[in-house]
Design goal:
Bound molecules: zinc ion
Number of strands: 11
Shape: globular
Helix content: 10-25%
Oligomer: single chain
Structural class: alpha+beta
Radius of gyration: 18 Å
Largest sheet: 5 strands, antiparallel
Number of helices: 4
Length: 197
């Protein structure tokens, strides 16, 4: 672990953010480098990660069919889009998107948090729909998991890890998909020629 020079804090706007980096070994996957930025002044904290293995723009798909599947490791970088079509859930990276190592259940928790937050201001049909999805998700987590987890990462720093061959489908993102993908803090200008050529 080594601290790097202080950087400007996006929250309190002082030069008080210190960054530490830690290498972390994920079984059946390889090493990831986890970066944690912490502001000494206001407590702002941001984490992200990159994979130290070979990387390319990827789309990952895994069918979640059992309680055991909920324990599969998920490496989600700050540039990843996470989707569960059965629950109408899609989380796209924003400017402060975080990266983390978790499991499938942890991903469900994050989606639940986002949905609960959305519902705090929703009314009428939107609220009804949210309640229905929340119930679906809790049911899936507690007894009958039956859904598809999809992750798209243009920088290839994400993974769904299973010791079982063929459990996780992996393919390269197409150029069209790359252009339509949000990169979070790494947003590329639309006229970027490297991607179009
Ligand atoms: Zn701060």
């Amino acid at each position: 672990m080594d601290a790097i020079y202080a950087q400007r804090c996006p929250s309190c706007d002082t030069e008080s953010v210190l960054t530490t980096q830690n290498e972390y070994e994920v079984e059946h996957f390889g090493a990831v480098l986890i970066t944690v930025a912490t502001c000494r002044k206001c407590g702002y904290r941001h984490t992200d990660l990159i994979a130290l293995t070979e990387r390319e723009p990827i789309a990952l798909t895994a069918r979640i069919n059992s309680l055991a599947d909920l324990n599969m490791r998920v490496i989600k970088s700050g540039t990843a889009t996470v989707m569960i079509p059965e629950f109408g859930a899609k989380i796209t990276p924003g400017p402060y998107s975080e990266g983390y190592v978790t499991n499938v259940e942890g991903v469900l928790d994050k989606i639940e948090d986002a949905l609960t937050f959305m519902m705090s201001t929703a009314k009428g049909k939107r609220l009804k729909k949210g309640e229905k999805r929340l119930k679906q998700m809790r049911n899936a987590r507690d007894s009958k998991p039956h859904f598809t987890l999809m992750i798209k990462d243009p920088l290839g720093n994400s993974a769904i890890v299973s010791p079982q061959a063929g459990k996780v489908k992996k393919r390269k993102l197409t150029k069209r998909e790359l252009l339509a993908t949000k990169y979070g803090q790494y947003v590329l200008p639309q006229e970027d020629t490297a991607l179009k050529s």
